[in-house]
Amino acid sequence: MIAMTAMTAMLASRQLGIRTIPSRAVAGAHVQRMQARRAGFTLVELLVVIAIIGTLVGLLLPAVQAAREAANRMACNNNLKQLGLAITLHHDAKKTFPSGRNTRDPMGVSWAFRILPYMEEGAITQSYVPAARCDDVVNSQAMRTAVSAFFCPSRRPPNNTRNFDNNNTEPFVLGVAAGGDYSANAGTYFNYSTENGSGADPRQAGPIYTFSAVKAAWVTDGLSQTFAVGERHLVPVDPSWSPTMIHYQQGDNSMFCADTPHCLFRDTARGLASGPNDTNNRKFGSRHAAGTVNFVFLDGHVEGLSPDIDIDILRWQSTIGDGNDPTRPSDGATGGT
């Protein structure tokens, strides 16, 4: 009876032109169509995904940048600690802090060059030929070898792309001198000097200046209250400058040669650089967040100073014996303590 009913249904469907499809085949075809439809994203779904990714990047990027700057600042601190240790070792060996420079022309070397043996860079100093100019090819190893400890990673990697100075005139040799990002503390005037290193005015002199020979005993303000070296501010380029004199104008010449005072030294007479656009090439300054400027003090500790630090306190920390204590609160008297 059932077979007859099925046969009757099939004949009826053929007469009506209807093709019967087994139920399993129908279900399989439906699944395949659904899978084909779900094989890709719709435009709306794609836009939503892109928006989510953009939001995540926007949230993560500041954190990544902050972490990178924190690492750079720590590396800068470590560089300054290394310089501070070398300055201390120089004093232990020579009984004075390194002289800022022994001449004002390209025939001498800087304080930075003098501490190289105490930074395990003795091979550089041993290659120096004093009878030749710094920019002479015979002094290539001595003057053109970049030392990473002199570079702040927030500003640039180690390089030997600086111009040599030529007694404040157009340089003879371009783009091969070892550079650096740190300057010595000359006190309240970057070009301060004394004859034969004696007779320094402790209210004006820093520990490292032209012809200096400062002993630790002369630093009556205390080694922990007087900084030795800090980050150098680089002024923006003035379009009127000759292209070959840009490094000189910025104070960004050879780190190891003696003839550019505003490269080797900075002072505190007008405070710290207010920002990247400050045009004073005598100031200390940095490229760190909020403009914080790192200094290594004569006792070896590193401290970051705000660019808006009180100028009197900054001056007290830069001179070797002004008699003021920058860590004590002011009692209202002029001059500090």
What's the N-to-C terminus distance?
120 Å
Question: Residue ranges: pLDDT <50 for 5 or more in a row?
Answer: 1-13, 16-21, 330-337
Instruction: Domain count, please report it.
Output: 1
Could you say which overall geometry the principal axes of the C-alpha atoms support? globular
How would you spell out the order of helices and strands?
Answer: HHHHHHEEHHEEEH
List the defining traits of the structure above.
single chain; globular; 337 residues; disordered C terminus; mainly alpha; five-stranded mixed beta sheet; disordered N terminus; 5 strands; 9 helices
Task: Provide structural commentary.
The protein has 337 residues and is mainly α. It has one domain (58-318). The chain has nine helices and five strands, in the order ααααααββααβββα. The chain has helices at residues 2-16, 23-37, 43-94, 111-114, 122-126, 140-144, 246-250, 261-264, 311-318, and strands at residues 182-185, 227-231, 265-266, 293-297, 302-305. The protein has a five-stranded mixed beta sheet. The N and C termini lie far apart (120 Å). Residues 1-13, 16-21 and 330-337 have low confidence and may be disordered.
SSE topology sketch:
Elements: H1 2-16, H2 23-37, H3 43-94, H4 111-114, H5 122-126, H6 140-144, E1 182-185, E2 227-231, H7 246-250, H8 261-264, E3 265-266, E4 293-297, E5 302-305, H9 311-318
How is this structure best summarized?
The protein has helices at 2-16, 23-37, 43-94, 111-114, 122-126, 140-144, 246-250, 261-264, 311-318, and strands at residues 182-185, 227-231, 265-266, 293-297, 302-305.
